[in-house]
Design brief:
Layout (H helix, E strand, L loop, with lengths): L6 H21 L2 H25 L4 H8 L3 H13 L4
Length: 86
């Protein structure tokens, strides 16, 4: 049965995704969302300032200076670009 979909894995994946969704739903209270938005805005400011200071746009070079993963830095740089802030 080397091809096709493994129904057991598919069910496991579905259950895990549902559990994560319930967890996220429970955490999505207005007070936490406001804190998250504030934190994200602060990070965006740090990224923007660092880009202005260094002229560097490469997420893998910005990440260590920001204390973030390269993927997180890439997300923030992309978000700033999409929003016309960079």
């Amino acid at each position: 049965m080397g091809e096709g979909v493994d129904p057991t894995r598919m069910c496991q994946s579905l259950v895990e995704k549902m559990a994560r969704g319930k967890y996220l739903e429970a955490a999505a209270v207005p007070e936490l969302l406001v804190l998250f938005e504030d934190w994200l805005e602060e990070l965006e400011g740090e990224v923007s300032s660092l880009i202005k200071e260094t002229g560097e746009h490469a997420p893998e070079k910005l990440a260590p200076r920001l204390g973030l993963s390269p993927a997180s830095a890439a997300f923030l740089v992309g978000k700033l670009k999409r929003e016309g802030k960079r």
